[in-house]
Amino acid sequence: MRILVTGAAGFIGYHTAKALIECGHEVIGIDNLNTYYDVRLKEDRLAQLRGAPGFSFHKLDLADRAGVEKLFAGTRPRRVIHLAAQAGVRYGMDHPHTYVDSNIVGTLHVLEGCRHHDVEHLVFASSSSVYGANTAMPFSVHQNVDHPLSIYAASKKANELMAHTYAHLYRLPVTGLRFFTVYGPWGRPDMALFKFTKSILAGEPIDVFNNGHHARDFTYIDDVVEGVLRTADRIPGPNPAWSGAEPDPATSSAPYRIYNIGNHSPVQLMDFIGRLEQALGREAKKNFLPMQPGDVPATFADVDDLIADVGFAPATPLQEGIGRFVKWYRGYYGV
Fold it and tell me: What's the rounded Cα separation, in Å, for the pair 4 and 6?
């Protein structure tokens, strides 16, 4: 089928588009190729997709309302996988407007495109960041998430609310996916694994925030893509048991669903660094720093709903995933 993938030059978007092409789908990729990180990496991801049967690419900013309307009218996708976003927690401290333009205004335009052009299912990227100040572990989609700690998290929570509104008003089936610390080949340079690898190989110190007391539910990219594809094939309907007296945040009387996609096995940051040192064959010089504004001390995904509904849970061992990333990094940068 014809599937629109936003953020196709991004980390998750590239891998998702590649998997859809390999499944025989026609993929329309869009991305604005912004300069948040090295554009060459984005171009090189796209180069892996260009020329593939059924793939086309449009350079487009989702904040361009007329451009998005024209794209939907001209391509008429059957499904939409919306992965484009301004990423990063700390970047939002000084650039809040970017998150509103990209994540909120851009998502509104995607929702409008789906509404007016008979899209049968919209799958969109949320984030584990929406759990914010929650401390009950593991994080469950049935928990309230009204206390975000960063503008990025707030924008992702806003996306969930907007999507639910469209599901209610226009009966647009929507599924939101809360990703947990995604890593792997072709990853983002602003993420810990990439930054640590670059610094360790260069003999430079790495910044270890919260004095190393973080724990993260690191999730390998192939597992994330599998979760995206499986949930995309499961078009949600209303939950007949949903009650406004005791509202379940993960479901609705509208065709709306939220899932966690995480490895459901948090790893201490110092253990993570140790496994990376082992894969690289080098010891890191560590610069211990306090907790940064917007960060949370730990993430841990409850994936029971994902297992129950699509029969899948991420399971790639961390050491295996790190090894694959290091192999890609060495090859890509010739280190």
Answer: 6
pLDDT digits (tens, 9 = 90+) for 298-335: 999 999 999 999 999 999 999 999 999 999 999 999 99
Catalytic residue among 152, 183, 220, 329: 152
**What whole-number distance in Å separates Cα of residue 130 and Cα of residue 155?**
9
In total, the chain counts a number of residues equal to 335
CA distance 250 to 33: 32
- Between helix 221-232 and helix 11-22 the angle, nearest 10°, is 60
Query: CB atoms < 10 A from the CB of 51, how many?
Result: 7
Identify the CA nearest to 162 among candidates 150, 153, 174, 152. 174
pLDDT digit string, tens, across residues 176-224: 999 999 999 999 999 999 999 999 999 999 999 999 998 999 999 999 9
The Cα 241–Cα 86 span in angstroms is 36
| Pure H helices in 233-303 | 269-280
Catalytic residue at 152?
Answer: yes
Report the alpha-carbon distance of residue 8 to residue 250 in Å, rounded: 27
Over the Cα atoms of the chain, what is R_g?
19
